[in-house]
Amino acid sequence: MGGSWSWQLTCALLLLFSAVVTATDHIVGANRGWNPGFNYTLWANNHTFYVGDLISFRYQKNQYNVFEVNQTGYDNCTTEGAVGNWSSGKDFIPLNKAKRYYFICGNGQCFSGMKVSVVVHPLPPPPTSAVAAQHSSPKSASPVLLKRGFRSLLVSTVSACFGIVWIYHL
Ligand SMILES: *[C@@H]1O[C@H](CO)[C@@H](O)[C@H](O)[C@H]1NC(C)=O
Ligand SMILES: *[C@@H]1O[C@H](CO)[C@@H](O)[C@H](O)[C@H]1NC(C)=O
Ligand SMILES: *[C@@H]1O[C@H](CO)[C@@H](O)[C@H](O)[C@H]1NC(C)=O
Ligand SMILES: *[C@@H]1O[C@H](CO)[C@@H](O)[C@H](O)[C@H]1NC(C)=O
Ligand SMILES: *[C@@H]1O[C@H](CO)[C@@H](O)[C@H](O)[C@H]1NC(C)=O
């Protein structure tokens, strides 16, 4: 039975490690933060978002805020039916689903460009495909591909880990 606990500890540490290593925090607007007069579409086009990543908004507290809305809210700058709202000035929002997310500022500044929409991609397929792709065309092996491979490797390690814990509990 002692073995079960050490496995659980190992898995907990592994999970923590994988979360730290793989969850990218996408800071909206980079060093410009969340402010009016910035084209966040250009910012979003420059990033690739995966399930489990974070998007974070940094701004002057009490001046701006963040609402998660649907496409209508995004297009029309309305917060009606908002799914969530944040106002800490340093908001970390987990992107837990593979879908398009819409965020706007809820105090009217949405009309001044404080709106951003991001597409979150599912976690990539097993690492074998990434490895194969690198072997067939070394020149096209991009950091994205490597990152994808690394992530799925971690995902499979973590799944295997859970499988082991499960067996121990039988
Ligand atoms: C942001 O840039 C994109 C791509 O150039 C453009 O299509 C869009 O109209 C711009 N948005 C604003 C609010 O200027
Ligand atoms: C896109 O990313 C590149 C590389 O990080 C950076 O140099 C460039 O300024 C970025 N463009 C925008 C619009 O954020
Ligand atoms: C969005 O706003 C436009 C113009 O104000 C309006 O015509 C349209 O009906 C609105 N769309 C929705 C879905 O409310
Ligand atoms: C967005 O939410 C509003 C309010 O709940 C709703 O009227 C509208 O139809 C929704 N739009 C979409 C595209 O789901
Ligand atoms: C913000 O979210 C909280 C729940 O997290 C909700 O009670 C509140 O009504 C929301 N505020 C607005 C303005 O939608």
UniProtKB/TrEMBL annotation:
InterPro entries cross-referenced by the UniProt entry: Cupredoxin, Phytocyanin-like, Phytocyanin_dom
Transmembrane segments: 149-168
Record has Glycoprotein as a keyword: yes
Transmembrane listed as a keyword: yes
Cellular-component GO terms for this entry: plasma membrane
Cleaved signal peptide residues: 1-23
Domain Phytocyanin residues, every copy: 24-122
Pfam families, alphabetized: Cu_bind_like
Function: May act as a carbohydrate transporter.
Family: Belongs to the early nodulin-like (ENODL) family.
Name assigned to this protein: Phytocyanin domain-containing protein
Organism placement in taxonomy: Eukaryota, Viridiplantae, Streptophyta, Embryophyta, Tracheophyta
